[in-house]
Inverse folding.
């Protein structure tokens, strides 16, 4: 069996908290023992809310910050110790959430993509490569001379994808790639990303808080809560039968548009007439467990 | 029955660099007393311009109201003198804004901000309220938005509160002067899904409890279905379709609405 494209083994990241006068005031475990693997051609979804550690995981995979412990492997080889090198960048690229902020406003589309080619000392015909990249993301060739402000949100995100693909990476980390877009535009960008998997032999780590989108785009999903993956399985089975309280709460919170979807949402008990927070739910569960243990 | 808010054939255009662009083309919509209405559209559809025109916060120029009328409680807001209009804005009709971080002043406590708003609303309406009564009213409203400890929240600066709590403060702010109409602009979009669900439920509970009319402005079809009984779909400055929310989702008549609904990813997956 071939090694997975990306594998995380018990990855931990802690940040030191600084108290007054730089004294240490304990630490935060932003990522707390996360393990998962993605096979070639798959889309693995990482679902979590703010503070769950999903961005820290992305940063570690990109080699922007080293894990405190654990190992990250790409094609079976550890990336630790060679973070942020060109060789690493050639394998993993990232598409960010807000294309308005991730594209340089003073560079044309062509210039932005050429910077990526130059950084990796691209030896071939750069002009031909640029045309090829634009075609991959289904943009007309003359868009190479446009500035980001002349493009719509969806077009900007296509440019960001083209730029990420410039160095022929094996893995793309997609951090909320469509959350700034309208639904109709989102649908087309997702379609494009799906087509590229087969065309270029790509693998995706898809980070999102949008569970409906995840259900349609990813094969496996890991639900992150406070730095831990509380549940990971094929996306269909997690959604049909969520086991963890937090997953149930997440699913119950998604605004849906049909009765079939409504039926799929787990029922969450209200506390004082209000939807409980994750902490409330987990506290309830702990209470119930201690009670059970006592009887 | 006449509606509490009735927008009739509203047309608005923008002129920039000598070019005139029609942004609203004869938009009509009704919000009956106590009803929950949604206005849904993608970016550029004109939903925010509609909202701003209703509230009277549209920058003119570059915008120009080309025609139409907006009746609130039988009076045309567009012909009302600014003095009279001030008495309605933030009092009889108020807004719940989207971004809780940029709508709160970071250097004042929650009580400072809510108290000041109440003071000026009272002054506009010629009401008298002592400092003590004002404080009591602010705490009361904070309790209405289900704050567990209103006293502590009132004494806090915005940065000390979570995103969900800040959004609650904004709802409290809108409720201060007992409005009859709430206009909510994408409430909860900046929040996590679980927090958003709590905020939407709170809004829904509050408007039902108090019999308020709610105009929900959003791009999220899920939010529309969860919060409103009647829906207007907007595209390119026009209302393309309107009707009871359930009907719009089950049997959309217009191609645009059908495409919009088809573009929404489903929790049930594609195969169904």
């Amino acid at each position: 069996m071939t090694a997975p494209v990306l594998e995380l083994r018990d990855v931990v990241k802690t940040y030191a908290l600084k108290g007054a006068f730089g004294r240490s005031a304990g630490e935060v475990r932003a990522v707390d023992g996360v393990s998962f693997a993605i096979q070639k051609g798959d889309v693995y979804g990482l679902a979590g809310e703010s503070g769950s550690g999903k961005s820290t995981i992305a940063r570690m995979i990109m080699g922007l910050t080293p894990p405190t412990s654990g190992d990250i492997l790409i094609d079976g080889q550890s990336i630790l110790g060679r973070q942020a090198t060109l060789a690493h960048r050639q394998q993993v690229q990232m598409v960010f959430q807000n294309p308005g902020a991730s594209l340089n406003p003073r560079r044309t589309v062509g210039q932005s993509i050429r910077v990526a080619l130059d950084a990796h000392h691209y030896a071939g015909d750069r002009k031909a490569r640029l045309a090829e990249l634009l075609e991959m993301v289904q943009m007309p060739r003359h868009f190479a001379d446009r500035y980001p402000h002349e493009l719509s949100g969806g077009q900007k995100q296509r440019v960001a994808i083209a730029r990420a693909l410039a160095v022929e990476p094996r893995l793309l980390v997609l951090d909320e790639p469509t959350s700034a877009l309208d639904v109709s535009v989102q649908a087309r960008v997702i379609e494009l990303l799906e087509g590229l998997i087969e065309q270029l032999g790509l693998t995706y780590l898809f980070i999102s808080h949008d569970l409906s989108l995840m259900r349609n785009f990813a094969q496996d999903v890991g639900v992150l809560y406070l730095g831990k993956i509380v549940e990971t399985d094929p996306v269909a089975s997690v959604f049909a039968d969520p086991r963890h309280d937090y997953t149930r709460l997440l699913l119950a919170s998604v605004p849906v548009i049909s009765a079939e979807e409504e039926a799929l949402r787990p029922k969450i008990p209200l506390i004082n007439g209000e939807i409980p927070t994750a902490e409330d739910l987990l506290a309830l569960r702990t209470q119930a467990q201690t009670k059970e243990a006592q009887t | 029955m006449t509606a509490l808010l009735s927008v009739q054939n509203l047309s608005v255009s923008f002129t920039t660099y000598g070019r005139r662009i029609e942004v609203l083309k004869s938009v009509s919509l009704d919000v009956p007393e106590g009803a929950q209405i949604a206005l849904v559209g993608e970016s550029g559809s004109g939903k925010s311009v509609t909202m701003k025109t209703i509230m009277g916060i549209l920058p003119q120029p570059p915008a120009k109201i080309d025609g139409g009328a907006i009746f609130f409680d039988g009076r045309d807001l567009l012909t009302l003198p600014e003095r009279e209009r001030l008495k309605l804005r933030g009092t009889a009709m108020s807004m719940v804004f989207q971004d809780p971080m940029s709508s709160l002043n970071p250097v004042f406590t929650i009580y400072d901000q809510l108290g000041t708003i109440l003071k000026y609303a009272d002054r506009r309406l010629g009401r008298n309220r002592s400092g003590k009564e004002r404080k009591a009213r602010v705490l009361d409203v904070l309790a209405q938005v289900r704050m567990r400890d209103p006293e502590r929240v009132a004494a806090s600066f915005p940065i000390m509160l979570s995103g969900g709590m800040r959004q609650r403060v904004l709802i409290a702010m809108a409720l201060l002067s007992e409005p009859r109409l709430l206009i909510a602009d994408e409430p909860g979009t900046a929040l996590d899904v679980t927090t958003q669900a709590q905020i939407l439920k709170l809004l829904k509970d509050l408007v039902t409890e108090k019999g308020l009319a709610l105009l929900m402005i959003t791009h999220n079809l899920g939010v529309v279905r969860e919060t409103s009984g009647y829906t207007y779909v907007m595209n390119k400055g026009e209302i393309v379709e309107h009707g009871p929310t359930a009907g719009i989702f089950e049997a959309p008549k217009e191609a645009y609405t059908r495409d919009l609904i088809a573009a929404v990813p489903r929790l049930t997956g594609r195969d169904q």
User: Anything to note?
Assistant: The longest strand of chain A covers residues 24-38. Chain A touches chain B at residues 49-50, 153, 182-184, 186-187, 190, 209-213, 215-217, 236, 239, 249-258, 260-261, 264-265, 273-275, 277-278 (CB under 8 Å).
